[in-house]
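Revision sheet: structure tokens.
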Amino acid sequence: MKLLLGLVGAAFAVAAHAQQEIKVGVIYPLTGSAASVGGELRNALELAADIINNGAAGVPDLPFSQGKGLPNLKGAKIKLVFADHQANPQTGATEAERLITQEKVVAIVGAYNSAVTATASQVAERAGIPFLNPESSSASLTQRNFKWFFRTTPHDDLFVHNAFEFLSELQAKKGIKPGRIVTLNENGLWGTESGKLQAKLAPDYKYELVKQVSYPAKTTQLTSEVQALKAANPNLVLQSSYTADAILSMKTYKELGFSPDMILANNAGFTDTEFIKTLGKDAEYIITREVFALDLAKTKPLIKQVNDLFNAKYKINFTGNSSRTFTGLMVLADAINRAGSTEPEAIRKALAATNIEGKNLIMPWKGVKFDATGQNTLGQGILVQVVGGQYNTVWPFAMASRDVVWPMPKWDQRK
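Predicted:
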């Protein structure tokens, strides 16, 4: 009888412990060509989990800043279970399977690379596990009629529209004409879709797209591609590249003396901390689409308050990538808390009913509210330009912290 009571007590102890810990799987590129950005995303997730579990004094507008865990689950703590997809779609799918079947996670956050998000979320969809995607922007990800997939970031259809809207306003309000346009993109899901959208929208906005060039996603040289761009004699390059190839392209531009009036990038590698850190002054004047900028803190103090916590812990600032990842986990935690349950269906229903106000986010968005496809309808994009080693908001013009520098100085005219 004592043995039986002991076993029952042990079972209750295990159940109580399980209730205190909610396992969330996270899939990111922690090694390989995208390891630098993957490391920053991991830091952002760890900060979010630490705030949820232990609090953030002096940040009252941030959900869970009291640090009492998830109140509706008796103070249960978030436990992150990391998986490394190495920027490989098949590895991402395998790791998603492992997180679900072996680690028994209640939901998954990931996966930065759109091609990996596509495969990993398919696994989650088949298993009936919520998949929260904070950063991947391929428009097709929310066009699959998935029930368990939710994306907080705006997608490339919006971002590419933003780029052309910026060019139109630049011409109308500042008299700057973009001229002949070329595109350069990696040939994965994200880059390919971006290039197609740019080709589709350029004539709609009455711009001349004279050439499109793509390259292998993990290339180690871009000489022939840059020579092809140079031969087209463009004024503007629209570029979609991850970190290693964004840096490689800039080095190759300089080596070959390719100096268009402007490079307008589609985020990703151009907003990784390593981009400016590695290139230094050669990163100057690039314009890139973004979803976040530290200079927006002048009208939204929450940005500085949370970035100060991030910088104190990791000695780096938030980027558009890491800020979105941080926000993604906060949104998922909000849904799990409202669900008051770790049952997948309860979490899915809570995610579908999400309605977070912009004042509670570090993003310059109106909020988070998902449509029937799982897409957040309240996100928006901005454009930033690297000047003085910092990302400065330049569009929308009403939000700008400084004027656009256009054209970029030629390589031999830079100090």
